[in-house]
Amino acid sequence: MIRVDAIWLATEPMDMRAGPDTALARVVLVFGEARAHHAYLFANKRGNRVKILLHDGLGLWLLARRLNEGRFKWSRPGLDESRIALTVEQVQALLVGLPWQHLDDQAITCL
To answer: In the chain, what are the domain boundaries?
Structure first.
């Protein structure tokens, strides 16, 4: 299994045609660097696709997920930050299209 120590949500949309190099450049732009064992989530403008860039300590993984119906519940109303830390439970809810924002408000850290 791949160890993931932190999961970050980027609030600005990303072009889903992006490959690993473009996604890495976006991570560096938004987060400053791609840290080992951190996952970075991006969505498209319509909110029906997600890409996750994961640095496993040796290389990069680029994962994609698409909802056939509906949208991912992406941004949290009232937040202007460009990045948000998520818990595993919040990511699991987000990736199936559920409103992750209310699962554990104390676990959300905004930078």
So the answer is: 6-110
Indicate whether 94 pLDDT > 90.
no
User: Nearest Cα to 10, choosing from 102, 77, 110?
Assistant: 110
The mean per-residue pLDDT over the stretch 1-14 comes to 89
* Cβ contact 71:47 at 8 Å: yes
Asked whether 14 and 82 are in contact (CB, 8 A), the reply is no
CA distance 48 to 96: 11
- Which tokens is 22 given? 């473009």
> How far apart (Å, rounded) are the C-alpha atoms in residues 28 and 48?
24
CB 70 within 8 A of CB 61: no
Calpha distance 86→80 (Å, rounded): 16
Q: Torsions phi, psi of 12, nearest 5?
A: -85, 140
Q: pTM for this structure?
A: 0.79
